Prior knowledge:
Low-confidence stretches: none
Order of helices and strands: HEHEHEHEHHEHEHEEEHHHHH
Strand content: 5-15%
Radius of gyration: 20 Å
Amino acid sequence: MSPEQFIDNVCIENHILNRVCIELTYRCNERCRHCYVFDETKIAAKELSLEQYRTLFDDLRRLETLSIAFTGGDVSMRADFCDILRAARERDFSTLILTNGTGFSEETLEEIIHIRPQGISFSIYSGNADEHDAMTRMPGSFQKTLATLKKVKASGIYVSVKTPVMAPTFGGFESIHSLCEEFDIRHEVSYHICPTNHGNISPTKFRLGDVEKYKQALRIARRGKEISELPKRDIHKTICGAGLLSLSVNPYGEVFPCNGFVYRLGNIKETSIEDIWNGETLRRLYDLRFEQLGDTCLNCKYRDDCLYCLGSALAENGNILLPVKESCKIAQAMYEFREEANR
């Protein structure tokens, strides 16, 4: 068991809010075609203020929260981002920044580096610049992101790359993985493309949609790594980890189990994060068990590999207990990939 898994288990057993994802803004300088964020207004005046974040951080400190991830939109759109980051670091939170890396001025980037977050994760969709730029709809974004990444890595701050596997950028998937290997950077790969948080399914057209293609992606993403046997899923435990040890706060103070699961738990403008964390609305999620998904999921040979997402089920099917078919394909691909790797 890794140290991270050990900490997670302790937090779950003791109902400790381990980490919080904070969406600082839905504004962004890129216009990614697959983006799950849906907010037509994107009004900066409605976003939480610096003082409200300081209050939130104080509340999280009392809850013994360990880490905060800042995301968006893109955090660079907040003129006060460095002040927010500094406030979190002053309270000793481990901090992770998720960004496209193209919106920071040289002065802002230097200030971020000086504040010393624990890590910065960059979204890169392909090792092919044209493919990446076509997805972001921002010419030159690949080179800008890469330049920022190199500068941050040179500063000694932990750097990672996040890549969702998508059909339009699949041709450049291996090259971005190879680039991460060359730079000795962790490559975090996601396989499921979600509808928007308001149920618009248009991003799902970018899914691979094919078991063999998912297996091809897995062979690239996991090459050189040990393929261990998965533990058997306990059907009497929760379906996914949403709300078990983490929460998400959107730019307007609304709290959700995670940023991909629009199941409103409250708003920190009206209710403290502690009361939301200990509230009845979230507790209902704890009562959900995998066995409640029914015979199809219970009898599925791929259930141990299933990354069942309550948020996707809600957005796509209108029912958190109705599985998303694409997730079934991904689970099958993972199962078959492991079987092939261990022969």
